[in-house]
Amino acid sequence: MKKIFSLLLIAAMVFSLAACTSSTSSEAVKVGMVCIGDDNAAYDRNFYMAADAAKEELAKKGINIEWVYTYNHPAGDAVAVDCEELAEAGCVAVFCNSYGQEDAMLTVAGDYPDTVFAGLTNEGSMRDSLDNTVNAFPNIFEGRYLEGVIAGCKLQQLIDEGEIKAEEAVIGYVGAYTFAEVISGYTSFYLGAKSVCPSATMKVEFIGSWGDPTMEANTAQDLIDKGCVLISQHSDSTTPATTAQSNGVYHVGYNISMIDVAPDASLSSSRIDWTNYFVYVIENAVKGNKVDQDYIGHGLKDGDVALCELNEAIAAPGTEETVQAAKAAIESGELHVFDTSKFTVGGKEATSALVDMTGDFVGDEGYDAIFDGYYHESYFKSAPAFDLRIDGIELLNEAY
Q: Alpha-carbon distance 136 to 93, whole Å?
């Protein structure tokens, strides 16, 4: 009888242990994200899409996660408090999703060495002394170039069909600030457009904010009033698209597809797809593995940069084939976005661009990003550094 009782007790213990193990393995791991905006911002919606996709991918690997979000904190003490509270809540990783948040994140990270803190579209974490801080910025300039190809196809169609004259192929660009991230973006867009429409020029107007729907709309309207027949943007809302729609001009967006709000205007959009990076960081954080401090060299070929769907109803004939050819050439290394033979600065080909690791020009110090015939953007670090003012692009104002 004692033997039977012992066997039953052992069986019960094994069952209990198995149940406990099963519960532990299926328990959701918390992951935090500090957002610059909310559901109303196209920029943040792009992150939510990637977060949902990463959750699905991690589940296939047996890692169940729960996202915990904070909203509308672009910088400063509020970001530091968010980071602290998310770490205290047990998040294995905390992602700060915008430029400007990293400084506050770094004031907190050292107190929580078991949490990975990631500054997205930043670059300071790669140089600090903390092992648990990382940064990432995939090669969005590649996607911007392809956006420009789409725009160039449309502009050339308008010229060929007599809708506009060659000199009227003017792109209007709603920019956030006058520094490398934005300059790199509008320049790569312009070079993509010019590769298809040689007469294209660009006007850029800055709003001094990452996102302000009213200001973005007013700026887009001003650019249209100044003769721009196609609008693009480095800003967070969809109002440049709806302004283009209401004025009967064309548009190329950013972060998400804007075809739903501007079906007769918006041709396509480019976006960083953060899915791969989220999976990479979270999986390694859960397993206790090291995460690279700088996520360098990831772009189109890795699926970290993508184009949204093409609006076939209004795109120029042959656009898809032209874009795919350019994409293949970028991925193979045959085409370099910032090929110095394709643009001039002050009427001359650029032969040197000395920058330090923060992206500021530093005279005779730092590294030279131009060699082998092109500017090596995001080559020494994942963050953009391109800051050349090339010919063909007119800046209507400045905003630092």
A: 14
Q: Which residues contact 181 (CB under 8 A, 6 or more apart)?
A: 99, 121, 234, 383, 384
* Contact (Cβ atoms closer than 8 angstroms) between residue 43 and residue 236: yes
d(CA 146, CA 376): 18
51 occurs within a structural domain: yes
Q: What local confidence, expressed as pLDDT, does residue 399 receive?
A: 85
State the average pLDDT over residues 132-155. Answer: 98
For residue 367, what pLDDT is reported?
83
**Both 202 and 124 in a single domain?**
no
- Together in a domain, 30 and 130: yes
In a domain, 208, yes or no: yes
* Cβ(330)–Cβ(300) below 8 Å: yes
| CA 254 – CA 260 distance, rounded (Å) | 14
Q: pTM, whole model, 2 decimals?
A: 0.91
Q: At what angle do helices 140-160 and 319-332 cross, to 10 degrees?
A: 150
The total of structural domains in the chain comes to 2
Answer for the pair 117, 109: CB distance below 8 angstroms, yes or no: yes
φ, ψ for residue 205 (rounded to 5)?
Answer: -130, 130
SS3 29: strand
pLDDT bin (cut points 50, 70, 90) of residue 348 is very high
| Pair (243, 100) in one structural domain | no
